[in-house]
Every structure is written in C-alpha cells, then in structure tokens.
Amino acid sequence: MTAEPREDGLTALRRALPEGIVDAHHHLWDLDQGRYPWLQDAYDGEGFFLGPYAALRRDYAPGDLRNDTLPLRLAATVHIEAERDRADQLGETRWLETIHAASGLPTVLVGHASFLQADLDALLAAQAASPLMRGIRSKPVTADRAGATVEGRSCTLQDPAWLRGLSRLRAFGLSWDLRVPFWHLAEAAEVAASLPDQPIAVNHCGLPIDRSPEALAVWRRGLAALAASPRVVLKLSELGLRGGVWDGPGNAAVVRDAVAIFGVDRVLYGSNLPVSSLSAPIPAIVDAVLAGLPDHEPATLRAVFADNARRFYRI
Q1: Hey, is 78 helix, strand or coil?
Q2: Mean pLDDT of all residues in the chain?
Q3: Where is each Amidohydrolase-related domain found (predicted)?
Q4: How far is residue 42's CA from residue 17's CA, in Å, rounded to a whole number?
Q5: Peptide bond before 71: cis, by omega within 30 degrees of 0?
Q6: Cα–Cα distance measured from residue 305 to residue 296, given in angstroms and rounded to the nearest whole number
Q7: Residue 114: exposed, middle, or buried by beta-carbon count in 10 A (0-12, 13-18, 19+)?
Q8: With b meaning 16 or more CB within 10 Å and e meaning fewer, what string describes 252-263?
C-alpha cells in the first residue's frame, strides 16, 4: 500500500484557515494624505537596515496589501504605525479610520505616542478613544551595533522618564509593540519584568540580523528572558537580513528556535508588508515560518496565523 503524499505547508495553511489569516504586522501609507519623513524627505538608502528602499517610496493601500498577500487571504490585519510625522500622531489614526471604513482594512491599529511629551496622557486618551486602537509602538533609542552603548541618553530603555511614559499605557488599556535589535533584548526583558501587567508584542523575532553563532546565542538568551514574562508575545515577522538578503534555511532555523522558546500559543505571524518585500515575496516568507513550526496540524496553524493575534490584539 502506498502512503498518501503529505500536504505542503501552504496547502495545509489554506485548509486550516479557509476564511483567511490574520496579519499581525503591516503598514499602509498615502503620500498625499500625510507626511512620512523617511519616505518623502532626505533619502538614506544606505542607513536603512534592509538597504536601499526606493521601491517603498510610493503609496501602499489595502488593495496592495491584499494582492501582495496572495495566494493567502486576509481575514483581519493589525496596522503598525509607519513613522508618520511625529507632530501628526493622531493624524495617522484618523486617516486609517477612513481607510478602514472604506475597505474593511486595517482591522485594528497600533499607533504612536512619544513617551516624553508633556501631554502624553491626553494623547493616549485620544488614541485609545479610537474604536480601532489596540496599542502603541514607540521605539526606544538603541545602539547601532552589539557591544555599543546608549547609556545616559534620552529615550532609551534605561531612561527613567521614558519608562515612566511607557508605564502609562496600562491606564488606557493599550499594549506596547517593542522593536529593538537582538543586543537589547535582555535589557528589554528587565523592562518587561518591571511592568508585569503590560501586554508586550516583540516585533520581528527580536531582529536577529547577525547570524553568527555568538550573536544567535545572545539572541536566544534575550528571547528566553523576555519569554519569562507571561504577557509578552513574539511576532514571527521581518526575517530579512542586512541589504535585503534572504536566507530561507537560516530563517526557518530562527523561527524554530523562537517557537521553541515562546511556544506556539505566544507567537504571531506578521508580514511586515510592504517593507518585507525588499527581501522576499510573501510565499517565501510564509514558507520560512511554516518550515520552523513543530508541525502543520490545524490547531498549530490556526494559533500562529490567526488565533494568537486575535487574542492579543482583541480582534
């Protein structure tokens, strides 16, 4: 008797989620409807960690997101702030509300707030008043490489004033999206431990952009420290390397380690579109995530590609 061929991962995913996946991390922008300094002002293609990004300097709408997600369908999405002009933090929220009303996407939002601004509570209240708002992403200042330090600088994970601002999120029912490179993960874990009631979503697998054995060991220790705080989840997103290099087998190994540390109930798939398109198309990205999962059972696929995001972002 001949055994039936095993389903490939993508087919299994589509079968497990016929209604579509939940994309827990993407961006949209209309360059006529808002100012995005990194896209519209002085272009620094060499300074961006994925290398030249001229291809991103165009509008990116819900239709583009749906097309780029094919052959998968979208059931829901989480829009992450896209570094709109920091003087217009509420403007991004209001614009996205109109886009949601017209297209149904994005489903929910993670906005921005500057934790050191004098009227922080008023801004958080205004952000939280949006029926779509679920959290805040405010990036701390980080060192440009492992071994460097930002000690004593403002807006870092060590800055007491910045941390006081971060601690205000819970009063408004908002989660925190944390984006730091791997050499700051252990420091971020200390912050998470000091705020045990704060839901935190670590972006982009903790950015393990150095794949040397020594660097990966630091990355794994940092993830393990973060995973010790039960309200922290991890996004399986943005696996591209410096210069937009795509390493499929290496990325699958990263996902495998990340899932082993956090477990399948605390990891969330995110596309990071359109930024991730600098490195790979969605089928390759999804394949890397699927290759790193412990199995392709429907319960596992539904957890990673939908249910965990629905739970964390209250969709």
Answers
A1: strand
A2: 96
A3: 22-315
A4: 42
A5: yes
A6: 11
A7: middle
A8: bbbbebbbebbe
How many angstroms separate the CA atoms of 292 and 200, rounded?
A: 23
- Reported as half-sphere exposure (CB side, CA atoms, 13 A), residue 39 has a value of 22
Q: What is the CATH number of the domain that holds 208?
A: 3.20.20.140
What helix, strand, coil percent values describe the chain, rounded to 5?
A: 45, 15, 40
Distance CA 186, CA 113 (A): 24
This model's pTM is above 0.85? yes
pLDDT digits (tens, 9 = 90+) for 7-25: 688 999 999 999 999 999 9
Residue 252 lies in a domain: yes
pLDDT of residue 47: 82
Residue 279, domain member (yes or no): yes
Domain assignment present for residue 97? The answer is yes
Q: How many domains, in total, are found in the chain?
A: 1
Question: How far is the C-alpha of 117 from the C-alpha of 123, rounded, in Å?
Answer: 9
Pair type for strands 21-26 and 200-202: unpaired
How many CB atoms neighbour CB 70 within 10 A? 11
Q: Checking DSSP bridges between strand 175-178 and strand 200-202, what pairing results, if any?
A: parallel
Q: Which residues, at least 6 apart from 265, have a Cβ–Cβ distance to it below 8 Å?
A: 303, 308
Neighbour tally for 67: CB within 10 Å? 10
Measured between alpha carbons, how far is 202 from 224 in angstroms, rounded to an integer? 12
The edge-to-edge listing of strands for the beta sheet with 133-137 is 21-26, 74-80, 108-111, 133-137, 175-178, 200-202, 232-236, 267-269
Domain containing residue 250: 9-39+47-312
Phi-psi region of 296 (alpha: psi -120 to 50; beta: other; left: phi over 0): alpha
